[in-house]
Write a structure and sequence with these properties.
About 40% of the residues lie in helices and about 25% in strands. The chain is α/β, with parallel strands linked by helices. The protein folds into 3 domains: about 70 residues, no CATH class; about 50 residues, no CATH class; about 90 residues, Zincin-like, CATH 3.30.2010.10. The chain starts with a strand and ends with a helix.
Length: about 230
């Protein structure tokens, strides 16, 4: 896939990527921005014309994301605030202590820090999330090693990577990049994202063959995707 390019469309500026796919993919991201993935041979005029035809759908998606973002409260790092882990909500219990420590007990995140201001609590909790992300994601990726070996694909290996608008991506060398924020989603949603990226090791596009493969390994992927998109993370 070639480098990203910004192009003007009837829906405003859009990020355009080229790939070996056969059809144009139009994505409205949670911040309302537009991302296009087009076949290498598609002309810019054809791409812009296709976007124009999808203006109704684009406006509907932007409106839905706008309403969702307006209702989403900012995360707080004080006693009683709720935070997610593996799809469940837990309340914070903050305790002053000499050594930083975070652990789950019952319905609570217990956060121990020398300083109990919101910044210190946030840093302690984020470090915990990152550790858990690595443990959970590596274990889940390991279960795909045999599947990849039988298909002469590289053994998947994890790279944690913060991506503001994506949950994951796949590199041809077998590296699966996963957003550590995904650890807040349910196990079913995490497994869907991993299955999606694993399928990209075999199919480097979003064409029919890719979705056939995804349907084979994760038959209910569409409902899991919908659940992930609707979660307030």
């Amino acid at each position: 896939m070639s480098r990203l390019k910004i192009v003007d469309t009837p829906a405003g500026p859009a990020r355009l990527k080229r790939s070996r796919r056969r059809t144009l993919a139009i994505s409205v991201l949670p911040d309302g921005s537009l991302e296009l993935v087009a076949p290498d041979q598609a002309s810019l005029e054809a791409i812009v014309a296709r976007v124009a035809k999808r203006m109704g759908w684009i406006k509907t998606q932007r409106r839905a994301f706008g309403e969702m973002n307006a209702l989403r409260p900012a995360l707080r790092f004080v006693n009683g605030a709720t935070h997610r882990y593996l799809g469940r909500q837990y309340r914070l219990k903050i305790v002053k202590g000499e050594v930083k420590e975070v652990f789950l007990r019952g319905a609570y995140f217990h956060v121990v820090t020398p300083k109990t201001n919101q910044y210190e609590v946030e840093q302690a909790l984020e470090a915990w999330y990152r550790r858990q992300s690595r443990l959970q994601f590596e274990r889940r990726l390991a279960s795909w090693a045999e599947w990849c070996r039988h298909r002469h694909l590289p053994k998947p290996k994890l790279r944690l990577r913060r991506m503001p608008k994506r949950w994951g991506s796949a590199l041809q060398d077998g590296t699966i990049c996963l957003n550590p924020e995904l650890i807040k989603a349910s196990s079913a949603c995490i497994d869907y994202v991993i299955a999606h990226e694993i399928c990209h090791l075999k199919h480097h596009h979003h064409g029919k063959a890719f979705y056939t493969e995804l349907g084979n390994v994760c038959p209910d992927w569409a409902s899991r995707k919908k659940r992930l998109e609707s979660m307030d993370l």
